[in-house]
């Protein structure tokens, strides 16, 4: 006769509510793991999907995900000339927040090196890749934009020609893909007043310096468009992505580019490591610690629940002992209830998570490995939490029936 | 009485709690013999040592000194167990208390069935025998009821059925009628007499209920931890 099930049948409401409580707790534990996995997946999404063998970044920097990196767009051409390089394309990435239809719209702006890169590699679920050098964008579904929608960004209006799914930046914001020129235009968009003031400021600076006094023509240039000033830097990208031709010796190409004194070069794996160690590491450790604390809290709560359930049955346990019941019967009663509580709570947590997690603002990735590991932990917690109850039960004397 | 006819025999049972200034002698030099099929009442004021004697012979509260033999087998020598008390309890002793002490999450049938299963009777046989016992005790129509759905008398009958389930040689009852009205109390006492005579079990009942003393074959009386009086004629006590 299974006493655990019969006791549960008798206290069904209490057991159900307890199980729901444990289930919610385990769902949060699952969710913390899922958020951690999601964080990594979102962080690596671009690096993994962009398909670059090498990342060429500003000299002595760790690349666009770790810090500000600026390289001239002409670097593309230099890299294309390196033997073994199949493609080189500029990488422009920055996050903007604009007011759109009365709501803030955060976009991770990604530049595609038109016309070589039109975004064909993106997971496009509706529409098409970029088809023109300007004023088109591919937006992720997370941004809430519709196909054909026209979005004003800066001085220009961009039409959504394609929609992707799951393309988010390390911060969880949806990505939108433009040509590099458009991405830079959006990044350095300034109002007419800002431009006028900047030109006036430049003219004033030039006039107060020796070079301006000795070369009056420079003052004239300084008050014009910045593109017309040869000493000013040209448009910059965050990095240039290099794809190698099949069979190329990666190390040889890296050695060649590393010899250039104005850039640093990283392989895709190195860029992944930098990304994880930089942006994600602290969040990972924080989530991991929080997760461990939740597991400990779950164990303590379950132990208290099982202990309380056992205390409720002290008299019955004394009676069972008086009747000569074996310890295994009494132990089984407590342990089976603890395991059922853990297993049912786990299942409930999983089912609730399936409904709740997709509604989280950031991606929650529940992997099978994590689920298996948590299941093992739950079984261990159940067994450990029943120890307190079992200890109490074993100390019950049969003559307590008389008390 | 021949040794084969003896269900319970104690010699010089003494139980001392504490030591030195706090020493309390709860039971002193109690020797008694109860025969198979005999129904014996144990009377006495509170604190006389009745429950101490009952729990000592029930192998749940070992005596400080003295011996206990059940069914001709020596089971206790002072505080030392000569048998595995837990196994011995489930095979040879049945208990009934003032409260029925039924397991609240089991039905009447399951309460009795559990006692049988604890003693290694297979599930189906245990269920059949439990059903027979409950019908024998007049609660066959309430077998699937939970304890809280039964009246006090019905609960006590289920408790008696549980005590009888494994054909015990000794049934120990501690004020089994205290929570019952006189009619129900009488019914339970009659039940003890019936099962003792029909099943051959010895029944030792601690009671304060003087209304049903005529049911007993013999009455023992305790006072200050000692067995003071034996009466072979219950009518005198009544």
List the helices and strands and how they pair.
The complex is a heterodimer of chains A (403) and B (238).
Chain A: H1 3-10, H2 12-50, E1 54-58, E2 71-72, H3 75-80, E3 85-100, E4 103-112, E5 124-127, E6 136-140, E7 150-153, E8 156-164, E9 175-179, H4 180-187, H5 192-207, H6 210-214, H7 216-222, E10 236-237, E11 239-244, H8 250-258, E12 263-267, H9 268-312, H10 314-322, H11 327-356, H12 368-395
Parallel strand pairs in A: 4-9, 6-8
Antiparallel strand pairs in A: 1-11, 1-12, 2-10, 3-4, 3-11, 5-8, 6-9, 7-8
Chain B: E1 6-17, E2 24-35, E3 39-43, H1 50-57, E4 65-70, E5 73-77, E6 80-81, H2 85-92, E7 93-96, H3 108-118, H4 123-136, H5 152-164, E8 170-174, H6 182-199, E9 202-206, E10 218-223, E11 226-231, H7 234-237
Parallel strand pairs in B: 3-9, 3-10, 7-8, 8-9
Antiparallel strand pairs in B: 1-2, 1-4, 4-5, 5-6, 10-11
Helix pairs in contact in B: 3-4, 3-5, 5-6
Residues in β-strands, percent of chain B: 25-35%
Number of helices of chain B: 7
Sheet having the most strands of chain A: 10 strands, mixed
Subunit arrangement of the protein: heterodimer
How much helix, percentage-wise, in residues of chain A?
A: 40-55%
Provide the structure class of chain A.
alpha+beta
The shape of chain A, in one word, is elongated
How much of the polypeptide of chain A forms β-strand, as a percent range? Answer: 15-25%
Mean pLDDT of chain B: 85
Helix tally of chain A equals: 12
* DSSP summary, beta strand count of chain B: 11
What would CATH call the class of chain B? Alpha Beta
**What do the pLDDT scores of chain A average to?**
85
Could you tell me the number of beta strands of chain A? 12
Q: Which shape of chain B, going by the Cα principal axes?
A: globular
Share in helix of chain B: 25-40%
CATH topology of chain B: Rossmann fold
Low-confidence stretches of chain A: none
Number of domains of chain A: 3
Q: Element order, helices and strands of chain B?
A: EEEHEEEHEHHHEHEEEH
């Amino acid at each position: 006769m299974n006493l655990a099930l019969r006791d549960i049948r008798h206290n069904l409401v209490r057991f159900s509510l307890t199980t729901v409580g444990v289930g919610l707790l385990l769902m949060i534990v699952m969710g913390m793991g899922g958020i951690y996995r999601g964080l990594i997946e979102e962080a690596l999404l671009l690096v993994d999907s962009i398909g670059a063998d090498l990342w060429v970044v500003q000299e002595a920097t760790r690349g666009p995900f770790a810090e500000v990196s600026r390289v001239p767009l002409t670097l593309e051409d230099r890299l294309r000339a390196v033997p073994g390089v199949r493609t080189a394309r500029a990488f422009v990435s920055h996050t903007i927040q604009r007011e759109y239809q009365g709501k803030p719209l955060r976009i991770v702006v990604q530049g595609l090196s038109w016309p070589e890169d039109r975004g064909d590699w993106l997971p496009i679920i509706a529409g098409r890749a970029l088809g023109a050098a300007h004023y088109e964008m591919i937006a992720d579904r997370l941004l809430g934009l519709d196909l054909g929608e026209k979005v004003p960004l800066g001085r220009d209006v961009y039409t959504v020609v394609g929609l992707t799914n799951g393309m988010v930046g390390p911060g969880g914001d949806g990505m939108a893909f433009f040509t590099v020129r458009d991405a830079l235009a959006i990044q350095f968009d300034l109002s007419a007043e800002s431009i006028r003031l900047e030109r006036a400021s430049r003219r004033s600076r030039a006039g107060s310096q020796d070079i301006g006094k000795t070369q009056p023509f420079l003052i004239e240039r300084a008050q014009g468009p910045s593109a017309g000033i040869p000493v000013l830097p040209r448009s910059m990208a965050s990095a240039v992505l290099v794809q190698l031709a099949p069979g190329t010796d990666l190390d040889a190409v890296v050695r060649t580019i590393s010899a250039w004194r104005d850039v640093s070069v990283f392989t895709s794996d190195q860029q992944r490591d930098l990304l994880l160690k930089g942006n994600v590491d602290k969040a990972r450790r924080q989530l991991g610690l929080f997760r461990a604390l939740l597991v400990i809290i779950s164990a303590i709560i379950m132990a208290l629940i099982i202990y309380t359930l056992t205390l409720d049955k002290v008299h019955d346990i004394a009676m069972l002992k008086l009747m000569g019941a074996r310890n295994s019967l009494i132990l089984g009663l407590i342990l089976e209830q603890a395991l059922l509580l853990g297993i049912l709570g786990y299942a409930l947590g999983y089912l609730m998570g399936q409904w709740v997690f997709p509604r989280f603002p950031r991606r929650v990735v529940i992997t099978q490995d994590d689920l298996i590991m948590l299941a093992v932990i739950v079984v261990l917690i159940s067994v450990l939490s029943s120890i307190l109850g079992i200890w109490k039960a074993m100390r019950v004397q049969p003559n307590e029936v008389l008390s | 009485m021949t040794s084969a006819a003896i269900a319970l025999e104690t010699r010089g049972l003494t139980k001392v709690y504490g030591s030195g200034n706090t020493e309390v002698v709860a039971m002193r030099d109690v020797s008694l013999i109860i025969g198979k099929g005999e129904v014996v009442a144990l009377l006495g004021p509170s604190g006389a040592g009745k429950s101490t004697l009952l729990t000592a012979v029930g192998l749940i509260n070992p005596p400080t000194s003295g011996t206990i033999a059940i069914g001709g087998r020596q089971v206790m020598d002072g505080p030392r167990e000569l048998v595995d008390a837990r196994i011995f309890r489930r095979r040879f002793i049945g208990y009934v208390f003032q409260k029925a002490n039924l397991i609240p999450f089991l039905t009447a049938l399951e309460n009795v069935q559990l006692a049988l299963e604890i003693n290694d009777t297979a599930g189906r046989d245990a269920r059949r025998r439990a059903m027979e016992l409950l019908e024998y005790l007049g609660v066959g129509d309430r077998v699937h009821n939970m304890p809280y759905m039964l009246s006090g008398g019905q609960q006590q009958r289920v408790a008696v059925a549980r005590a009888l389930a494994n054909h015990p040689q000794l049934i120990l009852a501690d004020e089994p009628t205290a929570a019952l009205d006189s009619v129900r109390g009488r019914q339970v006492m009659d039940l003890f007499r019936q099962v003792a005579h029909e099943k051959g079990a010895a029944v030792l009942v601690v009671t304060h209920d003087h209304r049903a003393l005529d049911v007993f074959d013999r009455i023992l009386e305790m006072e200050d931890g000692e067995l003071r009086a034996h009466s072979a004629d219950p009518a005198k006590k009544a």
